[in-house]
Amino acid sequence: MTTYNLALIGFGGVNRALAELIRDEPGRFASLGFELRVVAITDLAFGSLVQGDGIDLASVLAMPRGSSFEGLPGGSPDPRNEDVIRNSPADVVVEATFTSPIDGEPAVSHVKWAIESGKHVVTTNKGPVALRGQELSTLAAENGVRFEYEGAVMSGTPVIRLAQKMLGGLELNAVQGILNGTSNYVLGRMEAGLGLDEAISEAQDLGFAEADPTADIGGSDVRLKVAILANELLDANIRPSDVETTGIQDITSDDVAQALAGGLRWKLIGEVRREDDGSIAATVQPVALPAGHPLAGISGATNAVSFTTDLLGAVTVSGPGAGRVETAYALISDIIAVDEFVQGAVRA
Amino acid sequence: MTTYNLALIGFGGVNRALAELIRDEPGRFASLGFELRVVAITDLAFGSLVQGDGIDLASVLAMPRGSSFEGLPGGSPDPRNEDVIRNSPADVVVEATFTSPIDGEPAVSHVKWAIESGKHVVTTNKGPVALRGQELSTLAAENGVRFEYEGAVMSGTPVIRLAQKMLGGLELNAVQGILNGTSNYVLGRMEAGLGLDEAISEAQDLGFAEADPTADIGGSDVRLKVAILANELLDANIRPSDVETTGIQDITSDDVAQALAGGLRWKLIGEVRREDDGSIAATVQPVALPAGHPLAGISGATNAVSFTTDLLGAVTVSGPGAGRVETAYALISDIIAVDEFVQGAVRA
């Protein structure tokens, strides 16, 4: 069985969830035909740890926040990201740090260092994909490694790979999505009679919404995902700033009630469309959808993407768009894609 | 570029739609890396036609119903299915005859003859898959050919392949679906105030429902699809007759109105579930779904399948479940799978 050595960059919720799965369920990976071994971890808080024969995940997962890898064999109080990414004996770099919506850093550099040193990269980080996706994909191809990022759009729910692998031979004319669970939850609660602020507070209490909900409510989170979908699936070459973006902050309880009475449901829709002249239009805006629209029935914090195709019409996939385990699964699906690439190269 | 020679078995709506795409859009296939050439057609009405250097599709598509292939070079007034399937120079047999829900014939024999003579088979026919799927898949593996049947469940909307390729590494605990467009349309119209018979008549007028709507309304169409999902995706070994089946014939307008008032929507649900003891429960029955259920919002004649997984929870795909072009696309997706197999074998 093939063993892939992983370097986990960032040791927050998502990479911890992946580490827990590797610790607890080797059989899950064995059934896929490979074994995963974590040989390096870096984190702003913990520092870095490199152990070529495999880190004892039970021990590091038990370390309380506030402690440090310093003092462990191969440990350092500093993250040493560049050194670890370039020089650790990892085959696959698992990038799950935070997203900067401005320049995608430090994730963009992490991805580059990995690719330049001949390592595959899997990431759940929207930033590098939305802002520098094509450049990084080209760099990966030049270096003979994979750059996979299924989790950047809808956590583990397949979207990018589904469109690429399951809709082959179809012309894709538009992609519409409910790509932010918080705003969808808030709109649903407004349909139940809550005001916008009240609904946001409730979402915060339930842990859906950030303390600062601006990116969710104002549409900038969806904007990054729309840029990814436009570039990956409709061969556009756009930046997030090219996506005309309006959030749900000005939707009132009256708007919602009036729409409902007319059989319509307000949703925050991210959309990419190929116009008749071949140009690409990309928007984020609240839309009052009729009941028969494939996205009208998507409720709660669920996310969904609807693909408009020439032969099939609308094909829609819905599922979770967040969550630490759900997002860790995106990394697993990316590692499966890396494995297919590696096995294909071995056969060839 | 690879050329695949096709034998079209049955020249009704679906295979005619495929032939039209091959005639009109060679670029669609070229972009997939192959060319399709039809070298044989058989049909109960037209007879059979074998032309090894490629049939002129424009001519045969222009032939009116009631005419015959007799008199054309390589033509015969008889379908000669066995001879054509075994001896024509086809690489891929495209089986799109009618489904017998009792024994799957004549499609089962068509598939066997093709596999035994070393040809790949793609089909949109529920019968052979629901009744003899595992036996035929084993036979195909033994003969080094592919047996592909994505269209047997939801026409071109990816379901079987999506579960197998996009949900790798997940434990699939249940599959629930809205797998019959007619009954879903009828239930929706009953929500709008029509009676059952009235809604069925409307569906017939619109061309959704057959003259005899028993298989749609009584659940036996869904039963075949549930058997396929159970065997393919949950490794069950069941026959359609093992699926406990109740249709929507006894759902009244009162039932529908009462449910709606309570926020529930009646849907005809096909379901396969792995019970705690490992056994498989398979049912078809009307269920009043709460608004938040992933299948509650599936409206009109749309079909959908919701996969219950361990790490992602529910992932749902919806799209068309019928239509000649939509079903022809299923055949294209199957031919893509054949091509991947062939190219993989070439590399190895």
Automatic annotation (TrEMBL), chains A, B:
GO terms for molecular function: homoserine dehydrogenase activity. Transmembrane segments: none annotated. Pathway: Amino-acid biosynthesis; L-threonine biosynthesis; L-threonine from L-aspartate: step 3/5; Amino-acid biosynthesis; L-methionine biosynthesis via de novo pathway; L-homoserine from L-aspartate: step 3/3. PROSITE patterns: HOMOSER_DHGENASE (PS01042). Keywords: Amino-acid biosynthesis, Methionine biosynthesis, NADP, Oxidoreductase, Threonine biosynthesis. It comes from the Bacteria. InterPro entries: Asp/hSer_DH_NAD-bd, HDH_cat, HDH_CS, HDH_short, NAD(P)-bd_dom_sf. Its EC number is 1.1.1.3. Residues 158-336 form the Homoserine dehydrogenase catalytic domain. Belongs to the homoserine dehydrogenase family. This is Homoserine dehydrogenase.
